Amino acid sequence: VPSDVSCILYLKACLSLQQARKGRQLIGRCLMSDGQHTRSLPFINCCVGFFNQTGSVDDALAVFKLGAHSGKMDAITISTMMNGFIKHHQSHNAIEMYEQYEQQYTLDNDVCNTL
Q1: How many CB atoms lie within 10 A of CB 97?
Q2: 111: which residues sit within 8 A by CB, 6+ positions away?
Q3: At what angle do helices 75-87 and 41-53 cross, to 10 degrees?
Q4: CB atoms within 10 A of CB 48
Q5: pLDDT (average), residues 1-28
Q6: pTM above 0.90, yes or no
Q7: What is the rounded distance in angstroms from the CA atom of residue 84 to the CA atom of residue 53?
Q8: Distance between CA 107 and CA 74 in Å, rounded?
Q9: What SS3 class is residue 86?
């Protein structure tokens, strides 16, 4: 399996070319072959964003939960997932997530400016 940096760039190319199927296949291979425990936080964040952008908020939430379970989560992960909920008309889930994590993670203006 290629490095996380190569995978992130591949996923961005898949989004640019509207090749969601190829991106999903790569994510599946990466998470199944190595397990999410060996994947970097930027890779987890990218996967959450990829699934949000390709219309699968359920898959984004599954990767989010894998990252949270393995301790690979930060304010960007949370904000990316919240943005996916909002984009897919599940704003109530975004509010619940904010309330759940606001004390643990700093959801500051720098993160909000990236949305």
Answers
A1: 19
A2: 75, 76, 79
A3: 10
A4: 28
A5: 92
A6: no
A7: 8
A8: 9
A9: helix
